[in-house]
Design a protein that fits this description.
By secondary structure, this protein is an alpha+beta fold. It has 8 helices and 12 strands. Strand 2 and strand 3 form a beta hairpin. The protein is globular. About 40% of the residues are buried.
């Protein structure tokens, strides 16, 4: 149960919450993944999933979103936030990532991904950038094919202080993801990404949403970014992942790398 930091054969620890945020956080283990929930923001600070690409099973999706009964419902962002609006319940741990092993275990993992603790509100509808975001794990798995097709993937919203309020929560404008794998020489490699759904505005004046209205959300934009930048904007401790970053320093120095297709990713 839960995330295994030795799954890759080399250490890849779950990024750690520290300081005041740690006091509000609770760690929840599911089949093949773990969610560290911020009980104040009512969203995950970090998730980690082990992906065995060679053993993935095709399980019917279902749509049985539910509260995790181990913790109070008011710690979780539940169905009221997603009702009668254009917000999607965005999986953090992608539904198919933990769905591997025996059919019984895979079915439990599939079901576990439908806890509200593993969701965050995202702009409704699909576009090319969102499809790219959803396919990042597949692209990295293909890259790691010679190394047992195993990944550890870490994902969460960036819980920013300027996230717009809505129905008792704050809707995150950015999400981050880190994929880690074994190079085959018992060395850890990792790549970091950010999805941005901030509104694109052509003026310096940003109008706040009226009370009760869905915040304005922009088109999905996906970037490959230095993992050190993800650590900085989230406040999470992840030294082994920072050290394993495959993004060349010369590229990192030029700023965040906008991705328009999987072929733009540097691994």
């Amino acid at each position: 149960m839960g995330f295994d930091e030795r799954f890759l054969g080399v250490g890849a620890a779950l990024p750690r919450v520290s300081g005041a945020d740690a006091a509000a956080s609770v760690s929840l283990d599911y089949v093949h993944f773990t969610v560290v929930l911020d009980s104040v923001r009512r969203l995950a600070r970090v998730t980690g999933v082990n992906v065995d690409g060679a053993s993935l099973l095709d399980i019917p999706r279902g749509d049985d979103w539910r509260f995790d009964e181990r913790i109070p419902e008011d710690w979780q962002t539940g169905p009221a936030v997603y009702a009668a609006n254009d917000l999607d319940r965005g999986h953090l741990v992608r539904r198919r990532d933990p769905v591997w092993g025996t059919p019984e275990v895979a079915a439990r993992a599939n079901s576990d991904t439908f806890h509200f603790t593993n969701a965050a509100p995202q702009a409704g509808g699909f576009n090319q950038s969102e499809e790219l975001w959803l396919g990042l794990e597949d692209h990295v798995l293909e890259h790691a094919e010679a190394n047992r097709l195993r990944l550890s993937v870490f994902t969460a919203p960036v819980l920013g202080v300027d996230d717009p309020p809505y129905r008792g929560i704050r809707v995150p404008l950015r999400f981050w993801k880190i994929a880690a794998w074994n190079t085959g020489a018992d060395e850890l490699a990792a790549a970091g990404f950010v999805l941005d759904q901030s509104p694109l505005v052509e003026t310096s004046e940003v109008v706040a949403p009226a009370p009760g209205e869905v915040p304005p959300l922009g088109p999905f934009r996906t970037f490959q970014v230095p993992i050190a930048d993800i650590a900085a904007i989230t406040g999470l401790s992840m030294p082994d992942l920072v050290a394993a970053d495959v993004l060349p320093q010369t590229v990192a120095a030029a700023g965040w790398r906008r991705l328009d297709a999987a072929s733009d990713i540097l691994l």
